[in-house]
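== Sequence entry ==
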Amino acid sequence: MRFLNLIPAPYRVLIVGNLLVAVARAAALAWQVKAWHYSEQLAEQTRLHTDTLHQFALASNAQQRAEQHQRLSL
């Protein structure tokens, strides 16, 4: 005899419903944790990209100053 057959039908529906709700809550929690983790990764990637662009701008400015200094010294 199966375990579910030992449980009366109205309670079986409640148990199955509660199990479905528990699975849905677990999935929602996993979704939120994944979104939180992804947003942290995205923020870090944005910060690194901004730093890289800043370094490019500094290098470009230094090169322009060197070229201007070279032109003025001629």
